[in-house]
Amino acid sequence: MAVSVDTLPTSCNLCPRNCGANRAEGQAGVCGADDTLRIARAALHLWEEPCISVGAGSGTVFFTGCPLRCVYCQNYDIAHGDHGTVISLRRLEDIYLELQDQGAANINLVTATQYVPQVVQTIRGARQRGLRLPVVFNTSGYETVQTIELLRGTVDVYLADFKYWKSDESDAAVRYSHAKDYFSVAVDALDAMVAQIGEMQVQGDVLTRGVVLRHLLLPGRLQDSMKLMAFLWDRYGDSVLYSVMNQYTPVRQVPGMPELDASPSEAEYEVLLDFLDDLGMDQYFWQEGGANKESFIPPFDNTGVYPERS
Fold first, then answer.
1. In degrees rounded to 5, what are phi and psi of residue 244?
2. Which DSSP string do the residues of 233-269 spell out, in sequence order?
3. pLDDT in tens, 41-62
4. pLDDT level of residue 1 (50, 70, 90 thresholds)
5. What value does the mean pLDDT take over residues 31-42?
6. Distance between CA atoms of 142 and 139, rounded to whole angstroms?
7. Measured between alpha carbons, how far is 91 from 258 in angstroms, rounded to an integer?
């Protein structure tokens, strides 16, 4: 069944899980979302890439639920849990405009795949009410081409993870995200994002149109990271911006996965950065030491969600 931006699906295929949940009738999908709209935080955020968190910060809206649900997720409480508050479409429009009034550089939609119909409608409505900011779609990279196409005309910047290299039966995508198809799906989705966005545009220090491609170094996965970055550089060159992160934080113990209990070493990260330099990737975002601290994870405490009181 085709996805529509006007209604919630009766057999959901908004993400590659294609779980078939009747979202229109309130059935929850694999992502955890049903027929309601739930967010856990809406606030200025200073910890994205410099071209995203400019000035007062990025106007982030953290949506509850996630199609990928990685076992090590840094935002575990909202990706796997039910943190967040149900709000109306009108309230979400208000939130975009409130973030604009606070000086946000953009509207940054974090893990919003399961709410794409509502996102398209609310961005359209907010623009009619005076929203002027670029819209950033902050995603795990696990997207369908069809859903990326639904976002045409709504999204100006894709801030997309590319998490895993293709591997064997012990593939990290299977072990950590139960997504055997992650690599091929993410490549197709990224191809669609790059084709849709076209030429990168910057206004002052703000990226107003473009694709920022993130990769997080995971424990014990240095070689996979090197292979993946070589592949991405060969495929996309400088048509996208690259961000290579060392902020992996073990926020919880995962049974049977002791390798996730510690962050990659600074030495491993330096090896990866040197490898990127050798590839000829002379411009990319990287992180200083100490990025792998839990303090970098925002509190999902409904900040900015409730209507402002007069």
1. -110, 120
2. HHHHGGGSEEEEE------S--TT-GGGGSPPPHHHH
3. 999 999 999 999 999 999 999 9
4. very low
5. 96
6. 7
7. 42
pLDDT of residue 292: 61
Angstrom CA distances, 209 to 54, 163, 238, 249, stand at 14, 22, 14, 30
The residue to which tokens 């292979």 are assigned: 227
Backbone angles phi, psi at 228, to 5 degrees: -65, -45
**Cα(245)–Cα(243) distance, integer angstroms:** 6
* Mean confidence (pLDDT) of the chain: 93
Is residue 89 within 8 Å of 118, Cβ to Cβ? Answer: yes
Average pLDDT (275-281) is 97
- Rg (Cα) of the chain, in Å, rounded? 18
pLDDT of 309 strictly over 50:
no
Q: How far is CA 263 from CA 42, 49, 221, 250, 255, in A?
A: 28, 21, 11, 7, 17
- Percent of all residues in the chain with a pLDDT value above 70, rounded to a whole number: 94
